[in-house]
Amino acid sequence: MKLYSLSVLYKRDSKVHLLMGGYDLQSFGYFQRGSVKEFMVFTSQIIVERCREGSRSTVKEQEYMCHCYIRTDGLGGVLIADHEYPQRVAFTLLNKVTNTLPCLAY
Asked: Among candidates 45, 44, 51, 89, which has minimal Cα distance to 71?
């Protein structure tokens, strides 16, 4: 059970902005870490861009499971983990992370 990435993004007018992200790249080789991080950032942005506001979804990308939660105000979170990471735990964590941030509707 491994958590690789937790990102908070903001979706507004079909544009997605990365607000913050945390990445665990220790299990990858030193020279692979940059491209793996780019893959995680890009995948997170694409998933948030394609998901509806107020929804939760899980997408399998290569050997990773990408869990996405987007609030109705456009603030969203993406958690990238291995296939053993429980879906319920992922969405609970995303809910807590996005609810600790203030409302971005303006």
From this structure: 51
